[in-house]
Amino acid sequence: MTTQEAFYNYLVRLGDDSLILGQRLSEWCGHGPILEEDIALTNIALDLIGQTNNIYELAVSIENKGSNVDQLAFLRLEKEYTNVLLVEQPNVDFGYTIIRQFFFDVYRKLVFEALCNSSDERLAGIAEKSLKETKYHLKHSSEWVIRLGDGTEESHRRVQEAVNTLWKFTKELFFQDEVDQKVIELGLGIDTSLFIESWNQNVTNVFTQATLTIPSNSWQHEGGRKGTHTEHFGYLLSEMQYMQRAYPNMEW
Amino acid sequence: MSSKDWPLWEVFIRSKQGLSHKHVGSLRAADAQMAIDNARDVYTRRSEGISIWVIESKLVTASDPDESAEFFEPAESKIYRHPTFYNVPDGISHM
């Protein structure tokens, strides 16, 4: 694997995470529990899709094969997407959505903090801009985790259930293979294993306030980074890709 | 309003140019922190502000519209209260 290929794949993974989570969150548009939260969730969705756009722009310029961001976002096959499985999990209810978001936000903030020092200035610039957005996303999701976890009996039961269901997708956030090794060597990308401890600590701190517990079941799921997805992903893609497939090369 | 509804909050935003916070509208939130967050999402999406205040609407005491005649009309005929009868000396700008 050349450096160019590794860096391209690395960027696509980074962009796929935010694209798919952005798509999931956008499903809340018009369905939020209250108007204010409806806007908050769709603001976050737009932030994530904006981050994706910047990351994909950089990816296609690295790849240098004349493809564009829309092709990358909307015209790949299921196996060609390399997002982590966590972000493609269905919304289910507001509690699930918040727990999924919280796990991702804690991780993503650590990623961007470290990527601010990427040896690629363009990526460092994207990280710096995205970090500000991500800090807000984390504040938003953390407050909701506490509010729901330490809220009513029903809200506690529901978010604890979401934690129990989604926990098995958290280890994959720290998946690394030869793509990562290559970009880490060159200082382009970052070694996420260095902040597993921080991630656990941050999650535990919020969970303590929220009176939530981490499940003892240690079985973990992975495959997203290699293109093996959960059953939900095909449905998400068919909706997300509809416009570009029905009207090839359409632009907004 | 049923007891299940969150309280109403009034939102004040200070824009980049403005010195004072201006009332921009209201929203619902369970507590003050949520009201600030919601105000950020609902009222500053287009860079409208650099500072937010929120206050629970029930804490605002308003003048009674039925008293507006005795409250406000007497001032209408007292134009001498406006500082419009002064000669501005030459060389004074921004007046």
Task: Write up this protein.
The complex is a heterodimer of chains A (252) and B (95). Chain A has helices at 3-26, 35-63, 69-74, 85-88, 94-115, 121-149, 153-166, 178-185, 196-210, 232-240, 242-246. By secondary structure, chain A is mainly alpha-helical. Chain A has a single domain, classed as Ferritin. Chain A is globular. Chain B has 95 residues and is of the alpha+beta class. Chain B has a single domain (8-81), classed as Ubiquitin-like (UB roll) (Roll), CATH 3.10.20.520. Helices cover 22% and strands 21% of the residues of chain B. Chain B has a three-stranded antiparallel beta sheet, with helices on one face. Chain B is flat, with a radius of gyration of 20 Å. The termini of chain B are far apart. The A-B interface holds A 34-37, 39-40, 43, 136, 139-140, 143, 147 and B 6, 27-30, 33-34, 37-38, 40-42, 45.
What does this entry show, briefly?
Helices cover 65% and strands 0% of the residues of chain A. Chain A has 252 residues and is an all-alpha fold.
| CATH level-four homologous superfamily name of chain B | Phenylacetic acid degradation B
**Helix fraction bin of chain A:** 55-70%
Work out the helicity level of chain B: 10-25%
Radius of gyration of chain B: 20 Å
Q: How would you sum up the major sheet of chain A?
A: none
Helices and strands, with pairings:
The complex is a heterodimer of chains A (252) and B (95).
Chain A: H1 3-26, H2 35-63, H3 69-74, H4 85-88, H5 94-115, H6 121-149, H7 153-166, H8 178-185, H9 196-210, H10 232-240, H11 242-246
Helix pairs in contact in A: 1-2, 1-8, 2-6, 5-6, 5-7, 5-9, 6-9
Chain B: E1 8-14, E2 22-28, H1 32-43, E3 51-56, H2 68-76
Labels describing this entry:
heterodimer, A: mainly alpha, Ferritin, 0% strand, globular, B: 95 residues, Ubiquitin-like (UB roll), three-stranded antiparallel β-sheet, 2 helices, 3 strands
